[in-house]
Design goal:
Elements: H1 2-18, E1 40-43, E2 49-52, E3 59-61, H2 64-72, E4 79-80, H3 83-89, E5 100-101, H4 110-113, E6 120-124, H5 131-136, E7 141-144, H6 152-167, H7 170-193, E8 200-209, E9 212-217, H8 223-230, E10 234-235, E11 262-265, H9 283-287, H10 289-292, E12 296-298, H11 309-324
Parallel strand pairs: 3-4, 3-6, 4-5, 6-7, 8-10, 8-11, 11-12
Antiparallel strand pairs: 1-2, 8-9
Helix pairs in contact: 6-7, 7-11, 8-11
Keywords: Signal, Transport
Organism: Prauserella marina
Protein name: Iron complex transport system substrate-binding protein
Length: 325
């Protein structure tokens, strides 16, 4: 299981190399309980108790969902893995100019972590083998799930709640949940008003390797898929995704299994658009029912598919706008 999560996590990173706007929102500020000097114990996704002297203020994060959770909670991290990539892909929770780059998401640099004098490092369960143990020897580490198809939205909030407890921002975490619920209700009402309740969608990204286009369907249980189903739509992908992220794999021939759906996808100008470029003149692509009916829409750049509450709210808005077109 660990191997699968590592591969999928790296697959997400590969999208930065080979392929993968809503409104930008500043992180809101719930009051932080920095006055309390009482120890805080948080049980992370491993079931391990992580005890801190008090609310963590100097916090770094490796995977970008953890970074987004921190910023959304009003905690600007002092260290972030691959800042350049984060800023290309995540617009919902922007960084200021203070975080230091701590290396790759799969294996942060211990040399970069050392001078930061961290109270806490937030990581996911997709670090390369041995990295967690090495870091944990000197720094308190909170492990959150990268994802879970059993309950993708629930897993997201479990991670937020863990981080909120560790940083004394539980009030803001409650606000984030309320804001998310309000956005889902707003999106559901908009879908109903458009007469689209029950419509089928297929969301994906894609990348090119050695001239061949590989498509990544976000199947049932994926975070984006579950969010869009929450506003009254139906995920049409027939294949099963991996157990962590709900990601499957297909080629252009595999798209022939889809009916006349709303075909939505994520791309990024920094890494190209295989659907608009490599597949534009592909005979199979041009004959797909949703291509012929004009139901293909590229969502705006910088909506992170594996992000947190604010990224998922952007996906609600993007879906509603696509339905209007």
């Amino acid at each position: 299981m660990r191997t699968t999560k590592v591969i999928i996590g790296l697959s997400a990173a590969a999208a930065l190399f080979v392929a993968g706007c809503g409104t930008t929102e500043e992180a809101g500020g719930g009051e932080r309980d920095t006055a309390s000097g009482d120890p805080i114990t948080v049980v992370d996704s491993r079931g391990k108790e992580v005890t801190l002297d008090g609310p963590a203020t100097r916090v770094a994060a490796t995977e970008w969902n953890g970074v987004e959770h921190l910023v959304s909670l009003g905690v600007m991290p002092v260290g972030v893995s691959d800042i350049e990539g984060y800023e290309q892909w995540v617009s919902a929770a922007p960084l200021d100019d203070t975080p230091k780059d701590i290396g790759t998401r799969g294996e942060p640099s211990t040399d970069a972590l050392g001078p930061l004098d961290l109270d806490l490092l937030v990581v996911t369960d997709s670090l390369t083998e041995g990295a967690l143990e090495q870091i944990e020897a000197t720094t308190p580490v909170l492990v959150i799930e990268g994802g879970s198809t059993e309950d993708a939205i629930g897993s997201m909030f479990e991670s937020i709640d863990m981080i909120a407890k560790a940083t004394g921002t539980e009030e803001r975490a409650t606000e984030l949940r309320t804001e998310f619920d309000e956005k889902i209700a707003e999106g559901k009402a908009a879908v109903e008003d458009l007469g689209a309740t029950g419509d089928q969608f297929a969301f994906s990204d894609a990348y090119v390797d050695a001239g061949s286009v590989t498509i990544r369907p976000f199947a049932k249980g994926s975070l984006v898929g579950d969010v869009l189903e929450s506003i009254g739509l139906r995920n049409a992908w027939p294949m099963e995704g991996d157990p962590a992220y709900g990601l499957a794999s297909a080629d252009v021939e595999g798209l022939t299994a889809l009916p006349d759906v709303h075909f939505w996808y994520e791309a990024n100008d920094s890494f190209g658009d295989p659907y608009a470029d490599e597949l534009a003149n592909n005979a199979i692509w041009k004959e797909l029912p949703f291509v012929k009916s004009g139901k293909v829409a590229r969502f705006s750049d910088s909506l992170w598919m594996f992000g947190g509450v604010k990224s998922m709210e952007q996906y609600v808005d993007a879906a509603v706008e696509a339905l209007k077109e």
